[in-house]
Amino acid sequence: MLQVSHVTKTYGKTVACRDVSFHLDPGSVTVLLGPNGAGKSTIMKSIIGFLRYEGQITVAGFPNKSVEARRILGYVPELPALYPNLTVLEHMEFLARAYKMNNYKERINELLTRFELADKTKKFGDELSKGMQQKLNLCLGLLPSPQMLMMDEPMIGLDPHAIKQLKNMIEEMRAAGCTMLISTHIIDSVDMLWDRALIMQDGTIKADVTRPELDASGRTLEELFFEVTENVSREDMSHPGADGSESGAEDAGRGETA
Ligand code: ADP
Predict the structure, then answer these.
(1) What is the pLDDT of residues 230-241, one digit of tens each?
(2) Phi-psi group of 203: left, alpha or beta (phi > 0 → left; psi -120 to 50 → alpha; rest → beta)
(3) Residue 34 Cα: closest atom of ligand 1
């Protein structure tokens, strides 16, 4: 569904992504993990077509900046971009009309109810709390039911009810065949949800594993994350203070990309 090939993005002297390649299978949920500054947002903004970069990105075989790809791709940015002078309902209706959706009122109502915004429809963008802004941001990304959806740190700022709703929606969308790429730096927030995990650090993909591959290695996602990003082996984690630097280096090789 998505093919990212040798993408490099620099901001001045900072290399935010270096020769990044990966693919997403149709209908799969992929989590993009990595510490702050790893390059997660940059690769997502490259895929959605907001940035210039070196390399190739295709969506269902179409160049990512083509009209065809734009019809397929949806995006929930990390920071909500709301209009201060539009109400919650006006934001949703504006987007529905931009996507030429039919019979969108029921879908809008369903989303606003699920994310507890149904009683806030007349509030303006700048009257919403941070958490409410994030919920509206999510509702806007989910509204067109895109075939492929990217969400950049979607759990940040959400209350437990909204996190539960979002997890339910991710399961429902996967069942409906939606391909998803979800970035986070909080590993706990995505456990149980993913089919494939990509771990990024310093602008490169350090690990690319499917769930069966990780299960077969006997590791948890958290263990793999620390092996890859800190070169800490499972043995080190279960025996804090033990000097396992050599075994850590060996173990870190499993599940990594070349
Ligand atoms: P992440 O989403 O994993 O936290 P980012 O993609 O935001 O990481 O950032 C990757 C690197 O690119 C960081 O070093 C960051 O400082 C840099 N960066 C991101 N956006 C910009 C920008 N607009 N201008 C300059 N540097 C940027």
Answers:
(1) 876 555 554 544
(2) left
(3) 3
Cα 42 to averaged position of ligand 1 atoms, centre (Å):
6
Reported as a single tens digit per residue, the pLDDT across 107-162 is: 999 999 999 999 999 999 889 998 999 999 999 999 988 999 999 999 888 889 88
Contact status, residue 16 vs residue 61, Cβ threshold 8 Å: no
- 64 vs 58: CA distance, rounded Å: 5
pLDDT above 90 for 12? yes
CB-based contacts of 11: which residues, under 8 Å, 6+ apart?
Answer: none
**Distance of CA 10 from the midpoint of ligand 1 (Å):** 9
Share of the chain above pLDDT 90, in %: 70
Mutate-to-test residue for ligand 1 from 9, 11, 153, 199, highest number of ligand atoms within 8 A of CB: 11
> To test the ligand 1 pocket, which listed residue (8, 13, 14) has its Cβ within 8 A of the most ligand atoms?
14
Write down the residue that tokens 């090789």 correspond to: 253
Domains and CATH numbers, the chain: 2-217 (3.40.50.300), 218-258 (no CATH)
- Residues in the ligand 1 pocket, defined by CB under 6 Å: 11, 14, 16, 34, 36-42
User: Residue 19 and residue 5: Cα distance in Å, rounded?
Assistant: 8
Q: Rounded distance, CA 185 to CA 142, Å? A: 21
Percentage of the chain surpassing pLDDT 70? 90
